[in-house]
């Protein structure tokens, strides 16, 4: 189809996704230069929006080696446990006073603390973003990134529309707030004691100081900030969204809630779940997570790709500069790929090899091919650990007077799709 003046292909079946993300991945793994992402990525210098070039390859490799590898993910275990502990204490308090808990909010604050401590070495309590504004900032930036920007579809004139709709102003405001956050993060690191553990921010600052060239480009302060914002935007709400949707589906399906809780409690009982490794054997819980990703992928359209060299799919020639969107949401509900696709049924994964690692094109929560999420292991572990703890310790149910049928299931707009109305439960 043509969106404005831009030829766009929407891939919405597993077989076509296989062609695009595996067979012809190299032909179409660049990103288009979109107005919405330009400002927030300091001119496409982050990982997610960078075109396919040597700079992207080197920055992505660096991030994979330094923060997303399995060893590093396990090294954040104490951080995760500490944050989880705080959350459990606050839930215990709510349980004793019978006050319902806003799970959407609390799960987001959990992932904020974990990602920030793990990647930036600081907690938000010490930053400019330690206020209510922060809770709005990340979802707002993601909504801007996911919203219709006329300048991306009508080059030359679209910017006029964006000024009228207020999008331009919103974008500027959001970029300024994120920039202020990065500045403070960098300041904290420049001031800190040399003896302290080196983290990812120190590493990026060292690249800047040593004037390292990545790809063909000198790594400057803007590059540091672009990568920090990348991690902030890509890393924080995705895991929280998955946990929120999983808890939503479980609280409207008490049978499944009991089943997954029995599995966890049989294994752990009164023992606390302290390590990320311990969730490996929770087979049914992992099915619940896969089923959540099938029906509620965090990034339903993946990120847009741009065709670099012409190729052919299903007899159609796809020319250079075509924009490609992969509709993972539709693929997860494709009746040719899934039986009773609208039903939340984790048991469909019993005796099935399907996993979310980008090799089964009917389930692509992390995308696939060269642009696939580099933090799949970290993301999965955050979700498994968070859910296992919540479900082990508390009996969750809908607040008094609310019925499963009356639950609001609408999705909020944006690049990542969260539940529109906060999930509140009693425990
Ligand atoms: C449950 C958690 C997560 C999910 C479901 C998820 C999902 C995704 C998806 C769907 C994409 C786009 C793939 C594509 O366009 O083909 C992506 C890209 C990305 N994700 Fe994740 N993600 C998660 C966690 C994280 C975390 C924790 C981080 C970092 C701390 C992260 C960093 C990134 C980055 C940097 C990219 C851009 C990759 C590129 O363009 O080369 N993600 N993620």
Automatic annotation (TrEMBL):
Q: What membrane topology is given?
A: Single-pass membrane protein
Residues bound to heme are 373
Q: Which GO terms describe its cellular component?
A: membrane
Mind telling me which InterPro entries this protein's record contains? Answer: Cyt_P450, Cyt_P450_CS, Cyt_P450_E_grp-I, Cyt_P450_sf, Cytochrome_P450_71
Key words, A-Z:
Heme, Iron, Membrane, Metal-binding, Monooxygenase, Oxidoreductase, Transmembrane, Transmembrane helix
SUPFAM superfamilies recorded for this chain? Answer: Cytochrome P450
Database matches in Pfam families: p450
Any GO MF annotation of the entry: iron ion binding
Gene3D superfamilies the record matches:
Cytochrome P450
Its subcellular locations are: Membrane
Cofactor(s) the protein needs? heme
Q: Which family does it belong to?
A: Belongs to the cytochrome P450 family.
The name of this protein is Cytochrome P450
């Amino acid at each position: 189809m043509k969106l404005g003046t831009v030829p766009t292909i929407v891939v919405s079946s597993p077989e076509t996704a296989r062609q695009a993300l595996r067979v012809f991945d190299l032909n179409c793994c660049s990103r288009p230069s979109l107005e919405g992402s330009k400002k927030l990525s300091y001119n496409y210098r982050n990982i997610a929006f960078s075109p396919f070039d040597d700079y992207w390859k080197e920055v992505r490799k660096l991030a994979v080696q330094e923060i997303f590898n399995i060893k590093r993910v396990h090294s954040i275990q104490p951080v995760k446990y500490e944050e989880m502990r705080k959350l459990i204490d606050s839930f215990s308090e709510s349980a004793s006073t019978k006050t319902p808990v806003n799970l959407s909010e609390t799960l987001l604050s959990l992932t904020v603390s974990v990602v920030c401590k793990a990647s930036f070495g600081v907690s938000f309590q010490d930053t400019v973003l330690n206020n209510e504004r922060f809770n709005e900032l990340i979802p707002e930036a993601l909504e801007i990134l996911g919203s219709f920007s006329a300048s991306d579809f009508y080059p030359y004139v679209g910017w006029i529309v964006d000024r009228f709709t207020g999008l331009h102003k919103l974008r500027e405001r959001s970029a300024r707030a994120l920039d202020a956050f990065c500045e403070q993060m960098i300041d904290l690191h420049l001031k800190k004691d040399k003896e302290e553990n080196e983290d990812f921010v120190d590493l990026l600052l060292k690249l800047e100081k040593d004037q390292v060239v990545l790809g063909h480009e000198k790594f400057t302060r803007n590059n540091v900030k672009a990568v920090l914002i990348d991690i902030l935007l890509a890393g924080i709400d995705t895991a929280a969204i998955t946990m929120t949707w999983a808890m939503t589906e479980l609280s409207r399906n008490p049978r499944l809630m009991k089943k997954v809780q029995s599995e966890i409690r049989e294994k752990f009982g009164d023992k606390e779940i302290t390590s990320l490794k311990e969730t490996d054997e929770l087979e049914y819980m992992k099915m619940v997570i896969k089923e959540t990703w099938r029906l509620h992928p965090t990034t339903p359209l993946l990120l847009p790709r741009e065709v670099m060299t012409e190729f052919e799919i299903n007899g159609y020639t796809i020319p250079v500069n075509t924009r490609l969107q992969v509709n993972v949401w539709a693929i997860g509900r494709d009746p040719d790929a899934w039986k009773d696709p609208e039903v939340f049924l984790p048991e469909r994964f019993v005796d099935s090899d399907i996993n979310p690692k980008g090799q089964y094109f009917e389930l692509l929560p992390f995308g696939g091919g060269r642009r696939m999420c580099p933090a799949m292991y970290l993301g999965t572990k955050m979700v498994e650990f968070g859910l296992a703890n919540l479900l082990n310790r508390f009996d969750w149910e809908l607040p008094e007077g609310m019925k499963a049928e009356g639950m609001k299931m609408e999705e909020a707009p944006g690049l990542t799709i969260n539940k529109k109305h906060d999930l509140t439960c009693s425990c």
